[in-house]
Every structure is written in structure tokens, then in C-alpha cells.
Amino acid sequence: MRRNRRDDWSRRLVSEHRLSVDDLIWPVFVVEGNGVRQEVASMPGVSRVSIDLLVDEARRAADLGIPAIAVFPSVEPSLKTPDAAEAVNPNNLVCRAVRAVKKAVPNLGIICDVALDPYNSDGHDGLVIDNYVVNDATVEILCRQSIIQAEAGCDVIAPSDMMDGRIKAIRQALDSAGLEPVRILSYAAKYASAFYGPFRDAVGSKSALKGGDKKTYQMDPANTDEALREVALDLAEGADMIMVKPGLPYLDIVRRVKESFAVPTLAYQVSGEYAMMKAAALNGWLDWDKAVLESLMAFKRAGCDAILTYTAPEAARLLSR
Ligand SMILES: NCC(=O)CCC(=O)O
Ligand SMILES: [Mg+2]
User: Fold this and answer.
1) Which residues form the active site (predicted)?
2) Does pTM surpass 0.90?
């Protein structure tokens, strides 16, 4: 076995998987203001930026060859309400950010989450009635949220809420609004995970959630067959691409999904995964560059077609060397 590993040229020759910049999606955080850059404490190296700086970062991403960004708004607490009304305001932060980026960098793909958690004073992805996240009333708002984001120029609508039946409803809503080309990336197998902690710091939804959890709609980490049912439903309802989330601890799910459905399969290397690697690297316990590339290669090996990762710009630079 060691003969093929003996030299760099033969290692390259027999290498089975390749990671490329074309596999990367960069999640970015946007805040109100001008010239604003706020470091996210639990994600060293990641910032929330105002729209003017986001446009610069988007240009940088496109120049690096990154195909798409995913834009997440950090919404002012005063705009969060129990009915999440700001989610359907066509002039909300995320819609203004999308319009600005699309205008400046038209060839960069833009992905927007569809879910109510940035706007809901309860911190939940759906409407809360009598202490329960209700399904169909939430789906109705998600459809309106999808339309305003798509009208702002978002190329890919990514429902991350885990309500039942929302893919079909959103597809119909987009089509009726003349938005047929807009793609749907479904967060189909999204687990109720502790690894989202730093993200909730970044978008300020942790305090709203008040220590609650999302177990009545996100999946139980004990389950894998259930992920296949979720994916089958979302594909039947019209999803163009599906996502597994979190990433590294759930690569068994990626593998089963890819083998079962052979459709575009993405995974999200989430904030907690980023924070773990970063903390170790900052302590001198891990070689950051090598750990980034190895972790992303693991997603490819499991069957991912693309990876959402906060390391995207650094990974792109490392891959171009
Ligand atoms: N809907 C997007 C997320 O929940 C992101 C999670 C993370 O990066 O931890
Ligand atoms: Mg589902």
C-alpha cells in the first residue's frame, strides 16, 4: 500500500476526491449602519458588517471564485415582535443587503434563509401560539418572506425552519409571483443541535430564545431514517437542492442521503464547528490551515456537492496556492 504514497506525484495521481473553490458557500452576517464591523466574540475572525462593507466582502468572495454567499441579518431587538412582522417587510435589512450586493456583484449567487427566528421576539423559527410553534400559519408567512427576498434579488431561497409542507407552498408562491427561476435549497435534515450556539450570538437570537430549544421542529440527533423521510418529502415538494445540518458530526446522514437520492446535497459546517477548530488553533493545539482543508475534504468524501463554511475565503485562498 505504501508504494503509491511514496511520492507527491503518485499521491496526487491516486487521490480520489478533490476540494475546489466551486464547492464553497460563504455565510455572512449583516447589521444596520455604515462602516460598521463588529467581531462575533464566539467566532474569532468572523464579523457582522453593515451593507456598505458587505458589498466589499461580496466582491472579495467573487474575486476568489466563491460561487455564492448566504446572507444572515442581525436584526435590532426593537424590530423583533411575536408576529415577526419585519420578516415580510420588503425594505428590511436582508432585502436591502441583497439588493446592494446583487447590484454591485451580479454574478455572485445569493442565498437567503427563510425562517422567522431573526424577527421573532420568541426566538423561534415559527409563530408561537399557546407555547407551541404552529405549522401552517408559519408556512403562510414563510411564503411571503420568500417572495420579498426573491424580489430583492435573492437567487436561492433556503427554508431553514423545518415546518412541514413549506417547500411545496413556497414553490407555488414563487411560481405564482413570476419567480420561477428562483431555486429552493431546503434545510431538509436540520437537527436540534448545540453546535448552533455561536450563530445565535452572531444574530442575537439566543436571548430571545430564553434558554428554550427547537426540539418540536428540528430533528432528534438520535435519528437517521427520519432524515431520509424529510429529504424524500422535500424533493417531492420541489426542492432543487437539499441540506444536512450540522456538518462534521452528521456526515453519516450526508452519505445516506447522497446514496439514497443522488441529488445536489449540501452540508453546513456550523458556527460551533468553526468555533471549536478556531479555539484549538488559537491555543496552538491545531494547525488551522490544515484542519480547515481536512475538515472540508471530509464533507466531500461523505458525498457533499457543496459546503457552507465560515472558512470559505480562507479555504479559497489556501486552495489557490
Ligand atoms: N439557519 C442558519 C443557522 O442556523 C446557522 C447555524 C450555525 O452556523 O450555527
Ligand atoms: Mg421537513
Assistant:
1) 190 (schiff-base intermediate with substrate), 245 (schiff-base intermediate with substrate)
2) yes
